[in-house]
């Protein structure tokens, strides 16, 4: 499903940027890195959301790739997967596609924990758990 909905270069680009942020922690400090990771996490969510919207549009309109998306959704969530309301399906797709960005989400959560920002860390780890619930069998 991920292959059909989220361009590999989108995920790869964000993960490369994560590596760059982590590589600069010594120079920039943990607080700056935490901010950069938060920005990456927000960007990852936007990328997953846009991909989920495109996939839902393809399923609604019968665009190219519709059969592959239908089959992938049904393989993952069962034969009634596409009977969900559009917002529910789009939200599930978004959480699933965010699975590509777990390293970014975990990095943002961990960096906030390390900087002593408990509320932000808890919220970020909660987001990680939502995504993991969707992607794990």
Quick synopsis:
The protein is mainly alpha-helical. It is built from 8 helices and no strands. The longest helix is centred in the N-terminal third of the chain and has 32 residues, at 30-61.
Can you offer a commentary on this structure?
The two termini are 14 Å apart. The protein has 137 residues and is an all-alpha fold. Helix content is 82%, strand content 0%. Helix 4 crosses helix 5 (66-77) and helix 6 (86-98) packs across helix 8 (118-135). The protein has helices at residues 2-5, 8-23, 25-28, 30-61, 66-77, 86-98, 102-114, 118-135. The mean pLDDT is 87.
User: Which stretches are poorly predicted, pLDDT < 50 over at least 5 residues?
Assistant: none
User: How large is the radius of gyration?
Assistant: 16 Å
By DSSP, the count of extended strands is 0
Fraction in beta strands: under 5%
Arithmetic mean of pLDDT: 87
In helices, the fraction of residues equals over 70%
What is the count of DSSP helices, taking H or I runs of 4+ residues? 8
Largest sheet: none
Category from helices, strands and their pairing: mainly alpha
Distance between the termini: 14 Å
Query: What oligomeric state do the depicted chains represent?
Result: single chain
SSE order, one letter for each helix or strand: HHHHHHHH
Shape: elongated
Secondary-structure topology with pairs:
Blueprint: H1 2-5, H2 8-23, H3 25-28, H4 30-61, H5 66-77, H6 86-98, H7 102-114, H8 118-135
Comma- or semicolon-separated keywords:
single chain; 137 residues; mainly alpha; 0% strand
